[in-house]
Amino acid sequence: MIAAASAVGFHGIGVPAVRDEAGGNISAALLLEGGHMVVHAVTARQTLLVDVVSPSSHDCRKAVDVFSRRLTPRDVKTVVRSRG
């Protein structure tokens, strides 16, 4: 998460808060200067959900690229939504 936040141009505020859940699932959150990043790993579905909230001046797809390079997924789907 720290490398992904850095790729987007953010510095984390502290370290990620990580929670191990039932079935080997993991959720983690990292506060960023001007936003946040949340990751949910659902092992039964072989799914990783990455949610990055930031100003539109940052390209959050770079965070997905970092996870993709490190985890080598079969498939990557991205949705970019404007908020506000």
Topology:
Blueprint: H1 2-8, E1 17-20, E2 26-32, E3 35-42, E4 47-53, H2 61-71
Antiparallel strand pairs: 1-2, 2-3, 3-4
What labels describe this entry?
single chain; 84 residues; alpha+beta; S-adenosylmethionine decarboxylase; 4-stranded antiparallel beta sheet; 4 strands
What does the model show?
The chain has a four-stranded antiparallel sheet with strand order 1-2-3-4, with no helix packed on it. With 84 residues, the chain is an alpha+beta fold. 15% of the residues are buried. The chain has two helices and four strands.
- The gyration radius over C-alpha positions equals 13 Å
Termini distance? 25 Å
As laid out across the biggest beta sheet, the strand order is 1-2-3-4
Low-confidence stretches: none
SSE order in H/E notation?
Answer: HEEEEH
Number of domains: 1
Give the CATH superfamily: S-adenosylmethionine decarboxylase
Strand content: 25-35%
What portion of residues is helical?
Answer: 10-25%
Kindly state the number of beta strands.
4
Biggest pleated sheet = 4 strands, antiparallel
Net shape? globular
Which secondary-structure class do the elements indicate? alpha+beta
CATH class: Alpha Beta
- CATH architecture assignment name: 4-Layer Sandwich
Tell me the CATH topology: S-adenosylmethionine decarboxylase
Task: Report the average pLDDT across residues.
Answer: 90
Brief sketch in words of this structure:
By secondary structure, the protein is α+β, with helices and mostly antiparallel strands.
